[in-house]
Amino acid sequence: MTDDPSGYCPEHLKIYRWQADKERGSADARGYDARWRKARTVYLAEHPLCVECLKKGNVVAATTVDHIRPHRGDYGLMWDEKNWQALCTLHHNIKTATEDGAFGNKETRSVPGTR
What we know:
Layout: H1 10-24, H2 34-46, H3 51-55, E1 64-67, H4 75-78, E2 84-87, H5 89-99
Antiparallel strand pairs: 1-2
């Protein structure tokens, strides 16, 4: 039993994250290769501020090009610039954790043998 919102005790949370990272594959394997790094650099130069911070009246540098709708391997969606937004690290981490199925989202919580 645990009170942690992830549904895991600290010991099993480490196992879950390790397994999820292992199954996820490398950044290059997921399409984040040299071509993506170049596109990311250009996009951030053109969109240097976090869109979520700006909505709150804060001026914070963007560090990440986020896919508004997760592409999940759909390269058409991955490369659709209308699906990109500039985010700071904090807002990208919040979005990933709450919308994309990470850290406690029911979609990805089950790891065989841990619960």
